[in-house]
Specification:
Elements: H1 3-12, H2 15-28, E1 37-38, H3 40-47, H4 51-63, E2 67-70, E3 74-77, H5 82-106, H6 109-127, H7 131-148, H8 152-174, H9 180-195, H10 199-221
Amino acid sequence: MSFPDALNVLKSRSLPALVQEELERMIIDGRLLPGEPLREVPLSALLGVSRGPIREAFRGLEEKGLVRVVKNCGVHVRTLDLHEADQIYEVRAVLEAMIGAKVARAAGSGGRAELHALIVQMEEAVAGCDINRYTALNFALHDRLAALSGNHKLHETYSRLVSELSLFRRQTYIHNEASLSLSLGEHRAIVEAVCAGEADQAADLLQRHCNDSRARMHQALCPASSSPSLNTNVTRSAE
């Protein structure tokens, strides 16, 4: 990036926000693992910034539920236990249904084109067995669905829940490489329903997709256990 380009970026977005975005991406990509300590000096050197923006980014990441800041113990990537993840999925399933119904009614031609383009990229990632890329595109697709719903608060709340679940979901992807094609099929069906304006169907597909992911999480992390709140007959596909 040239200096004028970098300057334009900084004019529109603060340096701490850019640092927070990069650290969040590192957490989602698995470069920073749950429980890992985050230290200002090494991260300052890695990102080429002073310690001030790093500290501000930590505060933003704490608000998003991605790190824990403990007095005298420093900052660590948050470790999410199965019980917490279960509770998040329970809330998320309700939001998914709301998003599906709203986006099917609100998405214009530009939004529909965006969703179709993401599906094409996901197909390419599956063809190349690229889990990292598929994971990123999965996040992007669900984020666009929430954004295109037209409800900013819904998008904001949903984004926080998804960010927290990113601490859990990557390891369930790694356990289920073969399920990428099943996941792709689910996402295709969701986008088709949205683009057809089928609000009820889009809501149902998104909610079932979320519940399938929750059941898959249980199967991957504690296959010997069962949860009475889950449908054990759902398709086990990557979220």
